[in-house]
Every structure is written in C-alpha cells, then in structure tokens.
Amino acid sequence: MKVAVIQGPNLNMLGIREQHIYGPMSLEQIHEQMKGSASQNDIELEIEDVNQKKEPKTPPKATPAKEIPKKTKSKKPTTEKKTQNKSFRRR
Questions:
Q1: Pseudo-torsion of CA 48, 19, 29, 59, nearest 10°?
Q2: Are 37 and 24 in contact (CB under 8 A)?
Q3: Where are the domains of the chain?
Q4: Helix (H, G, I), strand (E, B), or coil: what is residue 19?
Q5: Cβ atoms < 10 Å from Cβ of 14
Q6: Is residue 4 helix, strand or coil?
Q7: What is the pLDDT of residues 10-69, one digit of tens each?
Q8: pTM of the predicted protein model
Q9: Which has the closest alpha carbon to 62: 18, 1, 21, 10?
Q10: How far apart are CA 41 and CA 75, in angstroms?
Q11: How far apart are CA 3 and CA 62, in angstroms?
Q12: What is the predicted pLDDT for the residue at 22?
C-alpha cells in the first residue's frame, strides 16, 4: 500500500514555536516516527511539504476518489399516470 502525506505551511516550526501548544517534537522527528510505523506495516510512505505558493505534486499512480452519486428526489406520479393505471386495472 502507498500513502501520500501532504503537509501544509509552517510545519517546519514544530518543536520550535509554542511548544506548550504544539509539543516538543520537530517535523523531522514526526517524519521519522511516521516512516518507522509505515515500514512496520508494509506501507510505502511519500511525504511532501507544501507551502501556500506551491501546488502539491500528484502521488505516483494515484487514483481519484469515486464520485458518490447524488440522491434524486422521487417524483410523485402525475394524474396522467394514475389514469393509465386505473384503465389498466379495469381490463
């Protein structure tokens, strides 16, 4: 299995800024922990850091998610259909 991790801006400040909120681990330490867990579970991990000015690259052989069909409202039978059904029943 392949997993792509796409991270947003300012994560390079983890472990440096506001440790009482975000914790003491640096981004590199988090990456190492993720890689260790992935290798133990036979997962190929691709990590990409993205800032606001850069578009993330598409992971190799990524398949787009399937679109879920929207529910359609059931239409009430028209008077014409009711008439047709009544005539069918009389026969």
A1: -10
A2: no
A3: 1-56
A4: helix
A5: 19
A6: strand
A7: 888 888 889 898 899 999 999 999 999 999 999 999 988 876 555 555 555 555 666 666
A8: 0.52
A9: 1
A10: 49
A11: 10
A12: 87
CATH of domain 1-56: 3.40.50.9100
> Which stretches within the chain are classed as H helix?
19-22, 27-40, 79-90
The pLDDT of residue 8 is: 84
Amino acid in the structure at residue 79: T
- Highest average pLDDT, of 6-10, 55-59, 66-70, 81-85, comes from 6-10
Q: What is the DSSP letter of 60?
A: T
Token pair 């399937």 is found at 66
66 in helix, strand or coil? coil
